[in-house]
Structure formats: structure tokens, C-alpha cells
């Protein structure tokens, strides 16, 4: 790898130390983090966004219906002709590689990208909960802020991140507007703004999954649903993304020209469960490192997550309330409960019994 070593250590976070600690803590050696059943590889539904611009109304409707079906049945789909150029994504990959191959003690510095660096899972109490990955989870509002540090080699990173965020936000706006309209929502053309999402409230997350010597017992990212409206993801060709379909894990085949889009918890709530926020994970790879970049469409903290139509199965809640509840549950129980907490008539105690 390009990974350069530093006098104070390596470029990789101390994931192996976490692994060994958790391995000792697990009663069963190896932790059984991953079941050994064969996982089928699937092509996700493919949506050509160019068809939404067709002069033919019928073609536009067929495309919108296909998107809505995929959001209902899979919670995930791929989009082509999305307007995010391959050159830009390749440039992002180069910047990302350079960033993640910085020494670990530099990545950890609170000044670098506004202290947005994360690695592993500090809350993990067993191997099942260890994520063999590192990331910069950057609020869009802070991308344009200059770092108060001397990383000249990363000076072009922010500009590329801003371009990627702008391009992916256009994809997210198109998709959410189309899906909202398909539910018969009149304000669909202004969906992102109506839902309290704008250029400052969303996040860009740069992910790296280092090659893992314990890949059989470890996950790159543990199973989870996204706590946002919509996620737009560019993954490389290494693969490793898996999602839950009909109670089985399905491996998502990488596609060079497609972006992956998935429904988040907030959109499931807003759509009255018509669209599904589906559990997904990343499996570890023993040979290759993997990179991805994700755009998370989030509203402001105090935005009320509404509904496309009453009656809604959910109590009214704000994005801030949702995120706080997720954090509390993870801290107390080790896992996210999420949307079931906010169902009408639900008492929180009944979920944790």
C-alpha cells in the first residue's frame, strides 16, 4: 500500500488492539461476528435519471414508478446518468487516499477537518460491534472553514469535497422530489427545503476500510440503518456492501458508473412506512482496502420530521430528538432502536424488555 510509516506509529488506527481486547472479552473465541452462510450477490434495481427529463410523460412516469418500487421493496437502488462526473469522483478518491494515508496521530488531531475523524467503535462491548473502518464525518457547514494547521498537501481536499457534496446534493434533491411526488405530495418539488434540509444541514462522510487480518470475525461496518432522509453513496470496485432483503444478507455488486441511493429512517417515517430504511453493513476484506464517500441528506436539528399524509403511525419528533434517542439507546443497550421508539402508542420500556 501507499501507507507511509511515521516515527510515532502507523497510518492505521489501533483497530487490532480493539479486536484483541474484544476477543478476550467474548466468551466464544472469534465472537461469531459473521454467520458463515453463503451470501448471494445481487444487482440492485437500476434507475436511469435521464429518463426523468424525457419529453415523454409516460417515460418519466415509468422511471418514477420504478424508483418508488425500489424504495419500497429494497430501500436501495442504483442511479446512472446522475450528473456526478467520473473525473470528479476519481479526484475525490485521490484526495481521500492521501488524507487517510496520513499518520494516525495527524488524522486524530482536533484541528484536521474540524475534528470530524472517527475510527472503530468506542462503544463496542463485543466483536459483533467492532467496525473495522475509519472515517471523516464532515458537516457541510464546516467544509469551507479553513483548518488552522499546516497541511499544505491537503489544501485541495476541501474544494473537491465541496464539489462532490454539491453534485451529490443535486442527486438527493432529484430523488427525494420524485419519491415525494409519487406519494401524491403536492410540495414535492421543494421537498428538501420543506423537510428542513439545505446546503448547511447535510453531511459528507469519507470512509476507509483498511485490509483486515481478522476478516472472518470482523465487519467493516456493523449492521445499521441510516438516521437521515436519504443517502447517496459512491463505492469503489472492491465491494463489501451488504443489505438485508427478505431476512437474508445480499451482497451489492459494484457498478463503475452508478451511485447507490438508500432510504433513511426519516424518509421511512415521512412516507408512513411506504419507503423502507433497510439494515445494511460492510464486510471486512483481508486483502484490499476499500474507500467510499457518502452524502447524508439531513434536516436541521430542530426540524420537525413531518408526514406525507395523516394519519401517521409516528408521533411528531424533531431530528435532534431522534439523534439524541439513538445515542441514548446505543449508550444504554449497545444498539440502536430507532424508529420504533416514535410509534404512536409506543412506550419506550416495551422496546427494551
TrEMBL record:
GO terms for biological process: gibberellin metabolic process. One of its GO terms (molecular function) is gibberellin 2-beta-dioxygenase activity. It catalyses: gibberellin A1 + 2-oxoglutarate + O2 = gibberellin A8 + succinate + CO2. Its EC number is 1.14.11.13. Its cofactor is L-ascorbate; Fe cation. It is an enzyme of class 1 (oxidoreductase). Residues 198-299 form the Fe2OG dioxygenase domain. The keyword RNA-binding does not apply. Keywords: Dioxygenase, Iron, Metal-binding, Oxidoreductase. Belongs to the iron/ascorbate-dependent oxidoreductase family. GA2OX subfamily. This is gibberellin 2beta-dioxygenase. It comes from Aegilops tauschii subsp. strangulata (Goatgrass).
Amino acid at each position: 500500500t501507499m501507507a507511509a510509516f511515521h516515527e510515532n506509529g502507523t497510518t492505521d488506527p489501533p483497530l487490532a488492539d480493539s479486536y484483541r481486547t474484544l476477543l478476550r472479552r467474548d466468551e466464544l473465541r472469534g465472537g461469531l461476528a459473521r454467520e458463515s452462510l453463503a451470501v448471494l450477490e445481487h444487482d440492485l434495481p437500476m434507475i436511469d435519471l435521464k429518463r426523468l427529463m424525457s419529453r415523454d410523460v409516460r417515460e418519466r412516469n415509468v422511471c418514477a414508478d420504478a424508483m418508488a418500487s425500489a424504495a419500497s421493496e429494497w430501500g436501495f437502488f442504483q442511479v446512472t446518468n446522475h450528473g456526478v462526473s467520473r473525473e470528479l469522483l476519481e479526484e475525490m478518491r485521490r484526495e481521500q487516499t492521501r488524507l487517510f494515508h496520513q499518520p494516525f496521530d495527524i488524522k486524530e488531531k482536533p484541528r484536521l477537518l474540524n475534528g470530524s475523524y472517527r475510527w472503530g467503535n468506542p462503544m463496542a462491548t463485543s466483536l459483533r460491534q467492532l467496525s473495522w473502518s475509519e472515517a471523516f464525518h464532515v458537516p457541510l457547514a464546516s467544509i469551507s472553514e479553513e483548518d488552522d494547521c499546516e497541511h499544505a498537501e491537503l489544501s485541495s481536499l476541501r474544494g473537491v469535497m465541496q464539489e462532490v457534496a454539491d453534485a451529490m446534493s443535486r442527486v438527493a434533491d432529484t430523488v427525494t422530489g420524485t419519491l415525494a411526488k409519487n406519494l401524491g405530495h403536492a410540495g414535492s418539488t421543494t421537498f428538501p427545503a420543506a423537510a428542513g434540509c439545505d446546503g448547511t444541514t447535510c453531511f459528507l462522510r469519507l470512509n476507509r476500510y483498511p485490509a483486515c487480518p481478522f476478516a472472518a470475525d470482523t465487519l467493516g461496518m456493523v449492521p445499521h440503518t441510516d438516521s437521515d432522509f436519504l443517502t447517496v453513496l459512491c463505492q469503489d470496485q472492491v465491494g463489501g456492501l451488504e443489505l438485508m432483503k427478505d431476512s437474508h444478507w445480499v451482497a451489492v455488486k459494484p457498478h463503475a458508473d452508478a451511485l447507490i441511493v438508500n432510504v433513511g429512517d426519516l424518509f421511512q417515517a415521512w412516507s408512513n412506512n411506504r419507503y423502507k430504511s433497510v439494515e445494511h453493513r460492510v464486510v471486512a476484506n483481508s486483502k484490499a482496502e476499500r474507500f467510499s464517500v457518502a452524502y447524508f441528506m439531513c434536516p436541521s436539528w430542530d426540524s420537525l420530521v413531518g408526514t406525507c399524509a395523516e394519519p401517521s403511525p409516528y408521533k411528531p419528533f424533531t431530528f435532534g430528538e431522534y439523534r439524541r434517542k439513538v445515542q441514548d439507546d446505543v449508550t444504554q443497550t449497545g444498539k440502536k432502536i430507532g424508529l420504533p421508539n416514535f410509534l404512536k402508542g409506543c412506550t419506550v420500556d416495551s422496546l427494551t424488555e
